[in-house]
Automatic annotation (TrEMBL):
It comes from Lunasporangiospora selenospora. Its EC number is 2.5.1.15, 2.7.6.3, 4.1.2.25. CDD domains: DHNA_DHNTPE, DHPS, HPPK. This is Folic acid synthesis protein FOL1. PROSITE patterns: DHPS_1, DHPS_2, HPPK, PTERIN_BINDING. The gene is FOL1. GO terms for biological process: folic acid biosynthetic process; tetrahydrofolate biosynthetic process. In the central section; belongs to the HPPK family.
Length: 697
């Protein structure tokens, strides 16, 4: 019944656009579609907006939106964001000259935002997680730091970054290489990928890898029926909202307060803690005359609405003794803030989401980066990692410098700073057959005396093991291992031995009994893979745990040193250990309690052990490593590769070779060194710390 006059339509759109302010191209396109459909009676419209020079290295950014009657209260599946002619410089090609010099490549992107289910969309709504500037910044950062041999690998990598880092549901990537062919304008590739493509690839790889390199304990196919543990099941389907919380405490036992708060959040079936950050000791902000805080962040899944979640949080804070009538920002046993809730923006008199001050607080952003560095702030259009970088730059420019913040762990009611020194773990074997000291400390009395001697010599922690894991050693029964370890721990604690004790075992029942007797840390050479109940025991006791890389068992591991054609043992350790870390987290182990060990001497030949020592920073300090930031334990003491290099068959005479390996470990960023000869290595560590850690050590 209506004739759509294009002149009237254009004037209507022009008048509407010029009298209104818009936060984004997406919001402008959406608003134009509303006006044309409602005022000009168009049954369907496609709006395409081109914003020239919107990006520094691209010709334009565009939004194309398809809208119809009846109008859905969500983004249409046909809506597309375009980035045209993005020019990047990178190493690409297989020819020798192409590996030497960067070339310019041209990218064109089509980003499909997908559906949004927010029922009460505002007039100036933006598809929060698909801001084109954020996507381009992220892709540019990764691509210009990488090198590719084929354009196919290049475009696949771009698609993967957009989907996995920027949370795009689907993307088309067209890449052209102008210098590829002399008599052609360019050569290139265009692909379209969605989230399902990469998810299926990950599942296929995981299925292919299987568990062939892992030997489980005979008869341990199921969880121990006699262990008092609960296996953590999958996240309930009704918990659909993803929320990030900040936690802090500076009264009482602060690390325990944070753990108690998480347990109280999970009472009932309305909240599941999915992940936690590392733990940080931070100076007080705003009100400085008070004790330091212990801060962390966590990711939860919930079915609670924002105000319902806030009500639950206030109940927990009150139950834990927080007094809301004291000075604002003053001391408190627990403080829980909602930082992000899905991708929504929310504000009323009691709650603002995203948290209004998070971008100015390093004690919030630093732990949040551990678990959400690639999550975008819905209002500021920056990833959390970018907000962190901006804050650090602002602090540097103001002369304030970085805050005095320390990544920490709670061990035996004390807070250890991972950046303060390299800690020494003294080895105490209560075994008759260990490779260098077997039989020396097989009675509880001799073991207790040795433990005290190790502490007197300079050890910070004692690692007690009751079963040898040297190559080709025989495995004893679980009962015998408990008999060798637990009485020693009980004897030490009965005599007032206050140093932290670690139990060296891959058996859940042994770990459970040892912690019950007074041990403080679980050191598992199998990273939880030999015993399916181990992760549950780790989560039950909420103690620090060390997850070590190995293949097979003591009898088979040295026949499993083939790491593929490239012999890239670091890549394999990164992939293998990160899977173990993720399984531990899924079982309820807190990230702040996890220590990683690349497993010197376990399923590695001499050259591979040296590769670990040379490239340790690539494993624990590289931004591209899944283990980046995790505290690291290194155990090179008296190992066979040192004997090979020094031609020293007597393991007890490998102290100087061990000293060199320990020095390399400190230089590579290790946080704990596990050794037999504590007195001699103590001075080695002190000097190494002074060189590589600086005066604070």
């Amino acid at each position: 019944p209506y004739s759509i006059h294009y002149g009237v339509l254009c004037k209507t759109v022009e008048a509407h656009s010029e009298k209104t302010e818009f936060r984004s191209v997406e919001a402008l396109a959406d608003s134009i579609a509303r006006v044309v459909i409602t005022k000009c009676h168009a049954p369907k419209i496609t709006v395409r907006i081109d914003k020239p020079r919107a990006l520094l290295h691209a010709a334009s950014a565009e939004e194309q939106l398809l809208d119809t009657i009846p109008r859905p209260l969500r983004f249409n599946m046909d809506d597309v964001i375009f980035v045209k002619d993005l020019k990047l410089s990178c190493i690409i090609g297989v020819n020798p000259w192409e590996r030497e010099e960067e070339q310019v490549v041209v990218l064109n992107l089509k980003i499909y935002p997908g559906m949004d289910d927010t029922p009460d969309r505002k007039a100036d709504y933006v598809s929060n997680t698909h801001n084109y500037r954020t996507i381009v910044r992220t892709i540019t950062k990764y691509i210009e730091a990488s090198s590719y041999k084929t354009v196919e690998a290049f475009v696949t990598s771009v698609a993967r970054i957009a989907i996995e880092k920027c949370h795009v549901s689907k993307i088309t990537v067209k890449m052209e290489k102008p210098s590829a062919i002399v008599f052609a304008g360019s050569a290139g590739v265009e692909i379209t990928r969605d989230r399902a493509f990469f998810s299926s690839n990950v599942q296929a790889k995981t299925h292919t890898r299987g568990t062939s390199s892992v030997s489980t304990i005979p008869g341990f196919g199921k969880l121990h029926p006699d262990l008092d543990i609960q296996k953590r099941g999958p996240v309930p389907a009704h918990l659909t909202h993803e929320v990030y919380l900040a936690l802090g405490s500076n009264l009482g036992n602060s690390p325990a307060n944070l753990e108690n708060a998480l347990k109280m959040l999970e009472r009932g079936n309305r909240v599941r803690v999915i992940d936690t950050s590392f733990m940080y000791e931070t100076p007080p902000m705003y009100v400085t005359d008070q004790p330091s805080f212990i801060n962390a962040a966590c990711k939860i899944k919930t079915d609670l609405a924002p105000l319902e979640l806030l009500e639950l949080i206030k109940e927990i804070e009150t139950e834990m003794g927080r007094d809301f009538n004291t000075i604002r920002n003053g001391p408190r046993p627990i403080d829980i803030d909602i930082l992000l809730y899905d991708s929504i923006e929310y504000h009323n008199e009691t709650l603002t989401i995203p948290h209004v001050s998070m971008q100015e607080r390093e004690f919030v952003l630093r732990p949040l980066c551990d678990i959400a560095k690639d999550v975008e702030h819905p209002k500021l259009y920056r990833h959390i990692s970018q907000l962190m970088s901006q804050l650090l730059l602002k602090q540097e420019e103001s002369g304030a410098g970085s805050s005095d913040i320390h990544k920490s762990v709670a061990l035996r009611n004390k807070v250890w700073h991972w950046d303060s020194k390299t800690y020494i773990m003294g080895i105490l074997n209560t075994t008759p057959d260990s490779f260098s000291d077997g039989g020396n400390y097989s009675t509880s009395e001799s073991a207790a005396l040795r433990a005290q001697q190790l502490i007197d010599d300079g050890a910070d922690i004692i690692d007690i093991g009751g079963m040898s894991t040297r190559p080709n050693s025989e495995e004893i029964t679980e009962e015998e291992e408990i008999r060798r370890v637990v009485p020693v721990i009980r004897l030490l604690r009965s005599r007032g031995f206050e140093a932290p004790i670690s139990v060296d075992t891959f058996r859940a029942a042994v770990a459970d009994k040892a912690i019950e007797a007074g041990a403080d840390l679980i050191n598992d050479v199998s990273a939880g893979r030999r015993d399916p109940a181990m992760y549950s025991v780790m989560a039950k006791w909420n103690v620090p745990v060390c997850l070590m890389h190995m293949r097979g068992d003591s009898k088979s591991m040295m026949a499993m040193t083939d790491y593929g054609g490239s012999n890239d043992v670091i890549k394999e350790i990164d992939q293998d250990l990160s899977r173990s870390v993720q399984r531990a987290i899924e079982a309820g182990v807190r990230r702040w309690n996890i220590i990683v060990d690349p497993g010197i001497g376990f399923a590695k030949d001499c050259e591979q052990n040296l590769q670990v020592l040379r490239r340790l920073p690539d494993l624990i300090q590289s931004p591209t490593s899944a283990l980046n930031g995790y505290p690291c334990l290194m155990g090179p003491s008296r190992k066979a590769f040192i004997g090979t290099l020094t031609q020293q068959q007597d393991a007890t005479k490998r102290t100087w070779g061990t000293a060199a390996a320990c020095t390399a470990s400190v230089a590579g960023g290790a946080h704990i060194i596990r050794v037999h000869d504590v007195k001699e290595i103590r001075d080695v560590i002190k000097v190494s710390d002074a060189i590589w850690r600086g005066p604070q050590a």
